[in-house]
Amino acid sequence: MGWTIQIEDEGGNAKKIMPKEFVLSDNEIIYNKSFRLLKYLDPYGDTTFNAYMFEDLAADLKELEGYLPADKEQIEEVLHLVKECDVDIHTYLKFYGD
Question: What is the extent of the structural domain holding 58?
């Protein structure tokens, strides 16, 4: 189970898509109560993050790296997408579940 992640504009059009599906070695970790936003990821539905959420999302992803060092490369890829969204106006980071 994983997510397709993409940057979308305000019309819902894809601007950039993560090349591979985001699949964690332990999906249950995202339900850790210490995460501000990752705990709301829906593995079967879609989850959208906006500009007000990017700072907290980046903090959660950095914390996730500590829990799942084997997934560091793909977590870094998502962090890069978060940073791209943060510098561009009217963009959203969308996680599409299975």
Answer: 4-96
Distance CA 68, CA 52 (A): 26
- What's the gap between Cα 88 and its chain centre? 16
Note the pTM of the prediction, 2 decimals: 0.94
Which tokens in the block code for residue 27? 């999906």
Phi and psi, residue 79, nearest 5°? -60, -40
Query: Over the stretch 11-66, which tens digit does the pLDDT of each residue have?
Result: 999 999 999 999 999 989 999 999 999 999 999 999 999 999 999 999 999 999 99
Q: For residues 31 and 5, give the distance between their C-alpha atoms in angstroms, rounded to a whole number.
A: 19
Closest CA to 82 of 40, 43, 28, 37: 37
Domains contained in the chain, number: 1
Distance CA(6)–CA(64), nearest Å, equals 19
